[in-house]
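Figure 6 in text form: structure in, sequence out.
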């Protein structure tokens, strides 16, 4: 199951699941954020962390800022998962 809270390594897992036969990913489009941040020291003494790689779908589409669409979309909210 995917959702907009799924990102980075979890998106890699979603991509692996999508390649399996007889498997459907259900849920919402993932967040669309890769990672592997690298630290860079700036000349003013500030250290910034920037992503150093880009993740793509098997079709060659960039995941960053787009996410991975599920095979079956199911829109949910956090409120729907709270026990009453």
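Output sequence:
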């Amino acid at each position: 199951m995917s959702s907009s809270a799924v990102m980075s390594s979890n998106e890699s897992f979603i991509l692996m699941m999508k390649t399996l036969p007889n498997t459907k990913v259900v849920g919402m489009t993932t967040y669309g954020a890769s990672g592997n941040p690298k630290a860079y020291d700036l000349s003013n003494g500030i250290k910034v962390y920037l992503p150093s790689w880009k993740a793509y779908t098997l079709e060659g589409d960039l995941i960053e800022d787009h996410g991975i669409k599920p095979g079956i979309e199911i829109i949910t909210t956090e409120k729907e998962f709270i026990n009453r």
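Caption detail: Residues 9-18 form the longest helix (10 residues).
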